[in-house]
Amino acid sequence: MVTLDKTYNGWTNYETWNVKLWLDNEPATYELQKEMAEQARKTPKVDVWTREETTRFTLADFLKDWVEDNSPLADDASMYSDLLGAAISEVNWQEIADAILEDN
Fold first, then answer.
1. How many CB atoms lie within 10 A of CB 36?
2. Do the beta carbons of residue 15 and residue 90 sit within 8 Å?
3. Are 41 and 55 in contact (CB under 8 A)?
4. 49 Cβ contact list (under 8 Å, min separation 6)
5. How far does Cα 12 stand from its chain's mean position?
6. Are 62 and 39 in contact (CB under 8 A)?
7. Which of 4, 28, 54, 56 lies most in the core, judged by the most C-beta atoms within 10 Å?
8. C-alpha to C-alpha distance for 56 and 41, rounded to whole angstroms
9. pLDDT in tens, 54-97
10. Which of 11, 18, 38 is nearest to 88 (CA)?
11. If you write DSSP's letter for every residue of 69-104 in order, what string do you get?
């Protein structure tokens, strides 16, 4: 079995790198990342996870929900919305959350 290396610029894949790039490039989304990280830190600890895991998974969920909710094609049924959805499904949200938490 051949395993393809999908890493891109030090990230899991192009999709993950691209989302983090855009989150960092826009001042509004850069600030939003910090707000989401703070909100995730305030989330009560889940019994089966450590405090750090709870924060990480919560932030990853916040980011994923925000990106999906703000998709310009969210309500369209088309080849383009399917392709966008497929690309978004490849994003490693925990990796992005880790990077945000390290920066903040």
1. 23
2. yes
3. yes
4. 57
5. 12
6. yes
7. 56
8. 8
9. 999 999 999 999 999 998 887 888 999 899 999 999 999 999 99
10. 18
11. HT-TTTT--SHHHHHHHHHHHT--HHHHHHHHHHH-
Question: Hey, what are 13's tokens?
Answer: 């894949």
- d(CA 32, CA 23) in angstroms, rounded, equals 9
What residues have CB less than 8 Å from 56, skipping those under 6 apart? 40, 94, 97, 98, 101
Whether the Cβ atoms of residue 16 and residue 92 lie closer than 8 Å to each other: yes
Q: What is the reported pLDDT for 62? A: 98
Give residue 33's pLDDT. 95
The partner residues of 11 in beta bridges, in order of sequence, read 8
Per the confidence metrics, is the pTM higher than 0.85?
yes
Question: 70 is written with which tokens?
Answer: 């703000």
